[in-house]
Amino acid sequence: MVSTFNSQKERMETQRILALGTDLFFMPQIGDAAQAAGFGFDWVEDPLSAEAFVEALVAAPTALVVLDLTCTLPWRAWLPVAKGHPATASIPWMAFGRHDNPASLKEARAAGMDKVAVRAQLGKALRETLATVG
User: Fold this and answer.
1) What residues form DSSP beta bridges with 43?
2) Contact 98, 119 (CB under 8 A)
3) Of 22, 61, 83, 103, which shows the fewest CB atoms inside 10 Å?
């Protein structure tokens, strides 16, 4: 299920930031950064098939996918399908995770994440990334 957090209408109808995660602590931070950069914000909190996930990406133009590496969503299945689909291949993916779990950060890089950050640097990494997308 894709949940709408912010439904601003100008540029946001064509560009959004899509967060993948279930930790509600980080959703407002990501949503605020998206809004400040002029994007809409949605999040996925329920498991979908890879095909359904790509359909959700295609249905609403997405400028960036942000993944919380602590979530249990099947992102490992979603990422290669999204990167291999002509309509979604160019969407950058950013992951963030715990500093005390470098293995998950390394796995995200190896899986094809465009940017990986530790949670403590999420705000800064989001601002930098959002300045370059869309």
Assistant:
1) 3, 19
2) yes
3) 103
For residues 63 and 90, the answer to whether their CB atoms sit within 8 Å is no
Q: pLDDT per residue over 49-78, tens digit each?
A: 999 999 989 988 899 999 999 999 999 999
- Mean pLDDT throughout 28-49? 90
Residues contacting residue 128 through CB under 8 Å, at least 6 positions apart:
none
Q: What is the CATH number of the domain that holds 95?
A: 3.40.50.2300
Q: What is the extent of the structural domain holding 96? A: 2-130
pLDDT band at 14 (very low <50, low <70, confident <90, very high): low
- The helix (run of H) or strand (run of E) holding residue 25 is none
Q: How far apart are CA 62 and CA 54, in angstroms?
A: 11
* Angle of the 102-111 helix axis to the 75-84 helix axis, nearest 10: 20
Spatial CA neighbour of 117 closest among 55, 52, 30, 5 = 30
Q: How many domains does the chain have?
A: 1
CB neighbourhood size of 102 (10 A)? 11
How do strand 2-6 and strand 16-20 relate by DSSP bridges? unpaired
